[in-house]
Design a protein that fits this description.
6-stranded parallel sheet, 45% helix, Rossmann fold, 11% strand, DNA polymerase, domain 1, alpha/beta, homodimer
Chain lengths: 235, 235
């Protein structure tokens, strides 16, 4: 392709990994051990939906920056209270926060990354998950990135423009040679505002099989079916 | 083994890569294009020897922090002048700075890292090279790390204790569960002072076949023949 891409950075929660089935499974297992019953996919969805307001609160300066693990923990406490699951103990709650370190990859993602590893394009994560989370997650899920980058390194969260610009600076590429890959239009729009190129990868199953399909965003540089297709386009 | 190691961080220049033959080859190629003759291994050695004083100058506060590429460039200018090689042009000098992004791995290093990738131990670089340098180098050299960490992320250089402690914090491991792997006793001694465990890997060819063999350091937690042996010990 003709965009002259030298490096590509990837959203992880949703774009490369199926957080919903992974987290639902761990919630159900922890709940089962505690003798609790609940609509576990709904608990997982509520936990994930609490994410955006928590980020906005940090990015607006309303609450100070905290690592994602801590945000996940306080969101989990609120969601469990909301679903009447207060009986879940401390150890289980800490374990559930680590569920986000063990997310499963979407089936195409490992092979797509291997193809990109064999190309000239440098690949890196660019996630709101911390460096430790991402190192564990990518190792366990078989996601071969050339580099692990996290919003943590900018002391902020996406969609703060500083996060995208930090990635370009650390990777030593001009922003227009850096491609942001995500299934979330707002992530891509924020990246584009800082001068990055953008690739949209649809993940229709992100919110489960019954979720309404999302329309692809209009203003992206390219759309790929999945990560294998993306590798083909960039090769 | 019984050290309870959860993650291992690796020195790169010397420990994982043969900087001397790589840089000598690029110096000879650039010099040849410019019609210059010199004892190229000696030029490479002089360039590398200028490294420690440059770091000490930064760490003592005498000169401000600059990325390693910039340090490499000003050291190169001095070394070329010293060897009467001023005729080497700007483009070649910039290219030679990038020679450090393209170092060859020692023969055992790729396989050793693959073995560690299949273990529970998280692996990361911990080098004075920048993130962009390390991402390119590890990709080209076939060095599969789970994470790329650089002293650049602490805005400093090894052996500043902040660099080792930053690695433990970002990887979310206690310092005593983190192993520093290096062929340089001073790197290991500085890591040990911050509470990290240490592994010495001898690289008798680092300074070429005629260099005097170095004695292994006394105060390390383990000594491995090479990275494959290290993987076996940690498994």
């Amino acid at each position: 392709m003709s965009l002259g891409i030298e490096a590509a950075v990837f959203d992880v929660f949703g774009t490369m990994t199926d957080w919903r089935s992974s987290v639902t499974g761990e919630l159900a297992a922890a709940g089962g051990r505690a003798g609790l019953q609940a609509d576990w996919p709904a608990v997982a969805d509520a936990w994930r939906r609490a994410y955006r307001p928590a980020l906005i609160s940090v990015l607006s300066g309303e609450t100070p920056y905290r690592p994602l693990d801590e945000l996940h923990r306080s969101m989990l406490d609120e969601v469990l209270a909301e679903f009447g699951l207060d009986a879940l103990g401390e150890t289980d709650r800490d374990g559930l926060v680590r569920a986000w370190h063990r997310l499963r990859a979407w089936p195409d993602a490992p092979h797509g990354l291997e193809l990109l590893h064999g190309s000239k394009v440098i690949t890196a994560t660019l996630s709101n998950g911390g460096v430790g989370l991402l190192a564990r997650l990518t190792k366990q899920a078989g996601l071969r990135f050339d580099c692990v980058l996290s919003a943590e390194l900018a002391g902020s969260y996406k969609p703060d423009p500083r996060v995208y610009l930090m990635a370009a600076e650390l990777l030593q590429v001009e922003p227009r040679r850096l491609l942001m890959v995500a299934c979330h239009p707002d992530d891509l729009a924020a990246a584009a505002k800082t001068g990055l190129r953008t690739a949209y990868v649809p993940r229709p199953l992100e919110w489960g099989p019954d979720a309404a399909p999302a329309a692809p965003p209009a203003d992206v540089d390219l759309i790929a079916d999945d990560i294998v297709d993306l590798a083909r386009i960039l090769a």
